[in-house]
Every structure is written in C-alpha cells, then in structure tokens.
Design brief:
By secondary structure, the chain is mainly beta. It has no helices and 25 strands. It has a 5-stranded mixed β-sheet, with no helix packed on it.
Length: 264
Amino acid sequence: MRRALRTIAPAVAGAALLVGAAVAGPAVAADSGRPTITSFSPGSGAVNSIVTINGTHLDTINAWTLGPLAPGSWYTVGPAQIQVQVPEGATDGHFQVFNSVGSGVSRGTFHLIPGIDLFDPWEAFPGDDVVLHGHDLTGASSVKVGNVAARFSVLDDETIDLVVPARAESAPVTVTSRKGTGKSTLSLVVIKPPAISSFTPAAGAIGDKVKVFGSHLDTVESVTVDGVDVGLVNHFRVDRSPMPNKIGFTVPAGVVHGKIVVTL
C-alpha cells in the first residue's frame, strides 16, 4: 500500500496569507464637514473694519463670533472664505465659526486698534481745541494731524482732546497706541488764509465753469469776480473731504472782467 505524502509548509512567525481579503492601508480621517479657520487678514483693525477669514466649509456656517460677541451677519465669498465686519464693542479675541456639525476657532488673536469716528468741530484754526470721538483710545502715545504731532490729552477710552498744531494742514488725524495706529476717514479742516496761485480758463463766457488753484481753499465760503458774487462754490473732494488746493465756480451774469477774490 502506498502511503499518502503530505508536505506542510513551515510556519513563519508573524506572517499570514489571507486570500480574498483587502490589505489595509494608512488610516484616512473622514471629512466631518466641521468648519475650520486657517487664517484671517488683517490681524488687527478698528471697529467697522472688514476682516477676511479663510478656512474650510465656511459656506455652511450659521454664526460667527469675535470673542464674546456674535454680530450675526457676514459675506460668503465661497467655501474657503468669508468676510466679516468688526462690531461695536469688540475687544481683542479669537474668531470662531459655527455650522450644524460643529465649530472652528482661529489660532491667532485679532487685535483692536484705535478708531476715530468724528471730530468736534470738524474745522478749526491752529491753536483751537478739537475733541476726537472714537474707541480704544486709552493708552494713546501719539496724535497727529497729517504728519504734524499735536498736543493732546486722553479723556476716556472714547474721547481725546487735541490742540491743532500751528504747522498743520487739513488732513486725516491718526492716533497711535501700543495696539497700532488708527486713522480717521475724513480730514480735519485746518482754517488758514486762502491764497490763489492760478485759475483756468483765463477767459470765458457767462455760464462757463472756472477752476481755481491755490492753498487753504477748502475753507472758502465766498468767491467774487469783479465784485460780483458767483453764488455756489464747488468744493472738489477726496474721500468725502474738501480738497485744500482746488475749488470751482460758474461765471455769473454781470461779469465783464476782473479779479477773483476768495474769502472765508
């Protein structure tokens, strides 16, 4: 009788042959749909400034916060970006976004810088006191009208009293503290005697428009030609502030020829 020959493969420690089984690869985390914040810009700003937030699933959010505040409105640029406006009463803090799955928070902290909302009065002579109204003004170390430093005193977090410098021209006001520098959107108008350097055209008919160039023209209230009042003075503007070096008017009836005179 012939015996059956059996050959048994030697066992190999730690090895196994699995037939028809999938070979497991590295674990891959599933995307849960939870929003995230990867960055935001700028890293600091004043109340009402616009901040762009970058991340993921931002088109699905239903709320966002800055510190303890939940302003409630935002602009969705796309899945990876939204824009928000810094709300009144904001303080330094982290941004956080929420959707139905969860929330994401920024790693960095947004810092509030001084903000200037308005001046009282909005025009003044050199040496006059002007009150600035804004926010985050405590700790101010410098106040300037244009590039000229002004004497000032901080009354509270929302108010600064400044003295208009003798060398100042009409310009935005800046306030600097350790948090940064805030700049007014409008110019403080510094009243100085106006001067005319040129005008164009040199000749024209009644009803023609004339442009006058010079300095300190932003405070001019009256223009006459040959003693005849021109009526409405056109103040050209930049960022809603009157330009100090250019005004315009329409040649009125009754003018033959004569000098242009501007008065405050």
